[in-house]
Design brief:
The chain contains 10 helices and 6 strands; from the N terminus they run E-H-E-H-H-E-H-H-H-H-E-H-H-E-E-H. It is of the alpha/beta class. A 6-stranded mixed sheet has the order 3-2-4-1-5-6. The protein is globular.
Length: 266
Amino acid sequence: MAAIYLIRHGQASFHSSNYDQLSELGQRQAGYAGEQLARELGPGRDPADVSWFCGTLSRQIDTEQRVRAGCFPDMPKQRLSEQAAPVTNAGFNEFDHEALLAHYLQRLRHKPEVEAFLNAVDDRTRLFQPAFNRVVDAWIADGDFVEDAAEAFETWAQFKRRIVDAFESAVTAGWEQARESGKKGSGDVCIVSSGGPISLMLQAMLNMDDVSALDANWVLANASITKLIYRSNPERPPRPNELRLAYFNHYHYLQTTAEGDAVSFR
């Protein structure tokens, strides 16, 4: 039995000029997730027996590095990088929320939630999520077509396809690694990504509808872990719908840190 760990990146810098970087809290969260992953993998594990993946966004790469360091704290950084170098794959990147907002906000300006956000002077943070939910709903409804897009624009259908492709490639890599090494405990996969992609990986496994799948995104805590398991078949890698959900959105370890509650959702 092998496991696939889906780890959401730590808290990003939502109110700064560069969203795509971990906040100080996000950096610590990633370390805590690494400590939890070490408990999951068990003592004496070789980092080379785990296949490591992440997207190409800065917040994802930084999280992955801190998770590995937290998971194997006694291993020198250079040796750890040599034995467990991650595969970066843009297929695990989050959708471009800024592009969605730029395209849909004016188109949906007559919707009460969007109108309230556009006209707000104060309290825009509180009004953002309801407006953004409207934007995402419209994006999903458009499917593989986006009306009057002035420039290249990733449709919902395109987003889904690239996530599933990246997910299947990571699962296959873990399966191949286990088959080639033949070692007990090999074949585990760790994927550091974002809320949207993790939700769609679950959709590929559980056959959820689009809205229900992306609803899972809104409750995923930063640096939370979702665990999938599969029984290895020597003949072929497992398909997404052959994976099983062991647990979803685990973050208790962030509630009980030495600094107290370190939970965030954005």
